Amino acid sequence: MSGSAILVVEDDASTSTSVARSLTAHGYRVVEAADAEAGRRAWERQRPDLVILDLGLPDADGLVVLRSMRRDAATPILVLTARGGERVKVAALDQGADDYVTKPFGMAELHARIRALLRRAAGPSADEAGVVSLGILRVDITRHTVEVDGSTVRLTPREFEVLKVLVTHPGRLATHGRLLRAVWGSAYTEEGHYLHVYVRQIRRKIAAADHSGALRKLIVSEPGVGYRITEADGST
User: Fold this and answer.
1) Is residue 236 assigned to a domain?
2) How many domains does the chain have?
3) Are 20 and 32 contacting, i.e. CB atoms less than 8 angstroms apart?
4) What is the pTM of this model?
5) What is the pLDDT of residues 108-159, one digit of tens each?
6) What is the pLDDT of residue 219?
């Protein structure tokens, strides 16, 4: 799923470099962090599509980092570690990890696990390529592109993240808090005015490409609660 952003939190420089080079060669956008604190900052700043997380970090237990990330968002987290015991694996999965790869590992296996997690994260409404289609709207979750009736709609990274949260579960209400945590992080759960501005921009850009008016009621507001995506004709 090239184009997706991946955060690699790994203190072993050779492992981090080899993973980053391989992912970059396959079209992923990679951010590296050598410890828990750097990983936390990158997580808040980048909001990646997937996290590869080592458990044996020098400044904190990886399970603590895992719990913190999982409280913020449903972003896929792949644990990559030398700890091969069953108890450690179960603990990581119980804390919210989506998959687990033990060192040493094969790069082909790692790529396969990543592709599977990204497809799953695109939601049940996505096709095998990670594309969500709602009428004339086409959102490619993995490549971060949006089209309306064949025309490209250029969204900022934040605008795309807001739209992604909504379209991956069409019809389901996404509360202000959930959207804020998923896109900006837990520190912004009370900043509802951010959402108003970004949703307004998304609506404006989609409307400019929607000459038929089929998407005029695509994003519906639930006052004081959140937003939901409707079907292309405006019905839920």
Assistant:
1) no
2) 2
3) yes
4) 0.67
5) 999 999 988 888 777 666 777 778 898 999 999 878 899 999 999 999 988 9
6) 94
DSSP labels for 87-122?
Answer: HHHHHHHHTT-SEEEESS--HHHHHHHHHHHHHHHT
Residue 152, H or E segment: strand 151-152
Domain co-membership, 55 together with 28: yes
- Domain CATH number, residue 73: 3.40.50.2300
Domain boundaries, position 175: 131-229
Question: Count of CB atoms within 10 A of residue 52's CB?
Answer: 27
DSSP 123: -
Is the four-CA dihedral 94, 120, 232, 138 of positive or negative sign?
positive
Of the pLDDT bands very low, low, confident and very high (cuts 50, 70, 90), residue 206 is: very high
Same domain as 116, residue 9? yes
Edge-to-edge strands, sheet with 29-33: 29-33, 5-9, 50-53, 77-81, 99-102
Whether residues 177 and 205 fall in one domain: yes
Cβ atoms 109, 116 nearer than 8 A? no
Paired tokens of 10: 């790994």
pLDDT at 234: 40
